[in-house]
Design brief:
elongated; alpha/beta; 435 residues; TIM Barrel; five-stranded parallel sheet; four-stranded parallel sheet
């Protein structure tokens, strides 16, 4: 399909490229030459404020894609085809799908003045999706599917290439072991805490684990492997490897042979990435050190990441990742609530709004993390299963990529997370035949 626009900007080229790939597997062709546009005999879209013929789909453009700065935008939502939309314009379509999709995917609102949450992150309550009750659906994918129907009505011979649905489970290894391989001072402090809170029960369990009489409660790695192999699903793992422990960086140190062995074992079978520490958010130079740490252990190039605590700020964090050689990031979601932060369930390249240019960083958005269900939303395991199933179904409906985040801690035998392993296994059993 060819699209005419009076002016072709980086923003317009980016979003038509992205939506084109979702619909036909390649970017739409853009032109600012009216003669060339009129001579085309196939599907045509006129993205301008003047009608050029009867054999076109005409969409009046919003100004957003022709600007090169960041400023407050009027984003009043309205209903169309049963879903929310904004940037109402005119022509043959009720709103500017290109500008609205760009607004959501670029995370435009995160560049505007906003409130931070307890951890210094963009608070989800600020978002247009939360305020207008579409956080729980991949709205951009929904819009694209509706747009496809409009194109088919106008151009029956137009060829569509639907993307394939994919389930990609991912895991953050924040705390590899509960009791094993800890320094003496951490063990001593933990014993004192146990005595003051839970009594002797955990103290006795700790002794049994350290004597190798029972498994460490957080050691769920073999169990997870069996789950994947039985269902023929390939996961991704992200490892936290700070140079020193801290309030939010509680993993054993990467100098420990046990952690090195765990990382190498997973790298031999799966794609793994770095889980940049909380400390690296305050000291950017630590990021490259942590990447090099994993590379030295695995003897493999590390090109993927996910921020610890989903702690990132735009554009600084993503620029640091690019500078450090990261090609793929899995942080696009909220660490405070489940849902679609960028309103999409498909991988997409990050657009740097301040520089007004696309980048090489491919973002994989997640929509479900069990820690949000447990810590933030206070759900039971069975309520969490219902929530996760909702997101699975929503992504499957639009042929997206369903990305979940789980932690080894939830899938072990710690009594704090009783029931979560069983729920996860049940979910796998339910979806295995559907992927």
């Amino acid at each position: 399909m060819i699209i005419y626009s009076k002016t072709i900007t980086p923003r317009l080229r980016y979003i038509t490229g992205l939506i084109g790939k979702e619909i036909i597997g390649r970017p739409f062709e853009l032109t600012d030459a009216i003669d060339k546009y009129k001579q085309e005999g196939g599907a045509k879209m006129n993205y301008s404020d003047r009608v050029l013929g009867d054999d076109e789909l005409h969409l009046f453009p919003h100004s957003l894609l022709f600007e090169d700065d960041v400023k407050e935008q009027e984003t009043a939502c309205f209903e169309t085809n049963g879903y929310k939309a904004f940037f109402k314009t005119g022509g043959d379509y009720p709103f500017d799908i290109f500008a609205a999709s760009f607004y959501l995917l670029s995370r435009y609102e995160e560049y505007l003045p906003h409130t931070k949450d307890l951890y210094g992150r963009y608070a989800h309550e600020n978002s247009l999706a939360f305020k207008n009750d579409f956080l729980n659906i991949p709205l951009v994918n929904v819009w694209i599917n509706e747009f496809v129907q409009k194109l088919k009505q106008k151009f029956p011979a137009f060829s569509i290439q639907h993307p394939a649905f994919c389930f990609l489970p991912t895991y953050d290894i924040d705390e590899a072991y509960s009791y094993k391989h800890k320094s003496w001072w951490r063990r001593t402090g933990a014993v004192i805490k146990d005595l003051l809170t839970t009594g002797m029960e955990r103290v006795r369990l700790r002794k049994k684990v350290l004597k190798n009489e029972t498994d460490d409660p957080f050691d769920s790695y073999d169990w997870i492997d069996v789950l994947h192999q039985a269902n023929k699903i390939t996961p991704r793992y992200f490892f936290l490897v700070p140079g020193k422990t801290g309030k939010y960086d509680r993993n054993i140190l990467p100098t420990e042979p046990a952690l090195q062995s765990l990382i190498k074992r997973h790298a031999d079978k799966y794609d793994i990435g770095v889980h940049p520490s909380w400390q690296s958010g305050d000291e950017p130079s630590l990021l490259k050190t942590e990447i090099e740490t994993i590379e030295n252990i695995t003897k493999k190039k590390i090109v993927s990441s996910r921020q610890h605590f989903i702690r990132f700020n735009l554009p600084e964090t993503f620029r640091r990742l690019i500078d450090a050689g990261i090609k793929e990031d899995f942080s696009m979601g909220y660490g405070s609530v489940n849902g679609f932060r960028a309103s999409v369930a498909s991988p997409f390249y990050w657009y740097d709004l301040e520089k007004d240019e696309p980048t090489s960083l491919l973002l994989y958005p997640f929509c479900y993390m069990e820690a949000n269900s447990f810590y933030e939303q206070n759900l039971t395991p069975w309520q969490a299963l219902h929530e996760m199933t909702h997101y699975y179904n929503e992504v499957k409906k639009v042929n997206g990529t369903f990305i979940t985040i789980w932690h080894n801690t939830f899938l072990g035998t710690d009594s704090t997370f009783k029931g979560w392993r069983e729920v996860y296994a049940g979910f796998f059993k339910e979806v295995a035949g559907k992927t």
